[in-house]
Amino acid sequence: HAEKNNFLVCGTTNRAEFQQGYFVKYGDGGVDIEPLTNLYKTQIYQLGKHLDIPNEIIERKASPDTWSFDVSDEEFFYSLPYEIVDLMLFAKEKSVSLNDICSTLDLKEEKVKRMLNSLERKWQASKTSRVFPPSWDNKDIL
Q1: Given 11, 16, 28, 52, which is the most exposed site by the fewest CB atoms within 10 A?
Q2: Does residue 35 lie in a domain region?
Q3: How many domains does the chain have?
Q4: pTM confidence score
């Protein structure tokens, strides 16, 4: 439809999903623009409320399935609420100390370490998903 009508395909990948490689490179990642990859999910919810997006849309559980598979992204991929994932990724990006993360989230050090390790493993495992294939036209990559 987009190609036939000369439209852009707009992606919906948020910052956490992009950083963690939670997209299919040539599936839901096969888009023309990704306007949300610099926004955490919690920021997108805030933006939706600011734009008066109906609550039934904002509160709908995100699902990894294209159809109506009854599992949320939190259950399937993160095993953590989005609010915690966003805060953990932000803290990692800003080099927030382990102590500060523990006190802010009111969690024990061991649990925070496990969560950070899980996010780091996903980051490392998904590196190739965040990189375009080399091109003969781009001498900087080759």
Answers
A1: 52
A2: yes
A3: 1
A4: 0.65
Question: Where residue 46 sits, what CATH number does that domain have?
Answer: 3.40.50.620
- As a whole number of angstroms, the distance between CA 133 and CA 47 comes to 33
The pLDDT of residue 13:
86
The two three-digit tokens of residue 44, written as one number = 């997108």
The angle that helices 109-125 and 98-105 make with each other, rounded to 10 degrees, is 110
Range 116-122 contact pairs with CB under 8 angstroms and sequence separation of 24 or more: 116/88, 116/92, 118/79, 119/20, 119/85, 119/88, 119/89, 119/92, 120/92, 122/20, 122/21, 122/22
Domain range for 25 is 15-129
Q: What is the pLDDT of residue 27?
A: 73
